[in-house]
Amino acid sequence: MISLYILLVAAVIAIFGLVVIIFSHIKKIDRSMRMGRFFLVFGIIVMIISGLFMNTEKKAHQAAINHQEKVQSQQIYDAALVHISDETVYVKSGQAKVTIRTSENVAIKVHSNHEQLHDLNYKSTKEKKNIKVTFVIPGEYTVTATRGQNKVIKHIVVSKDNHKNIHENSVN
What we know:
Radius of gyration: 34 Å
Largest sheet: 5 strands, antiparallel
Order of helices and strands: HHEEEEEEEEE
Number of strands: 9
Helix content: 40-55%
Strand content: 25-35%
Shape: rod-shaped
């Protein structure tokens, strides 16, 4: 912003120098003509330099905005804690294979309503992880992701006709 003010002042100085040159040319005053040329050249040089600074400031500002957008998108991604993607879920030969993607420091629990199946517990780690789970019994499964006080619950429904449905509920 300061570069804009400097650019405006330099433009005024250059215009002043141009006016002095014109009047000194009309009045035939050599000393005033040299002073006018000095102001004109000085004003043009300062305008060029401040224009370059403005361009640099604009690029730095754009880089800061891009970085902030990247950080915000990463925070939004991490806020979800767990992702069950349609592209990674498929049913083949009576098995439903699911890939569960988690963010950093997220504990995962896969729970089934079937009494004969045990819950799957995955401890939190300091890195993102992909968990591959194969379901062989049709039914509803609950995936609970926990990080601190944040908790996200997603449901996976595996049906006999080998179609999958994913329902999402978020609880904070």
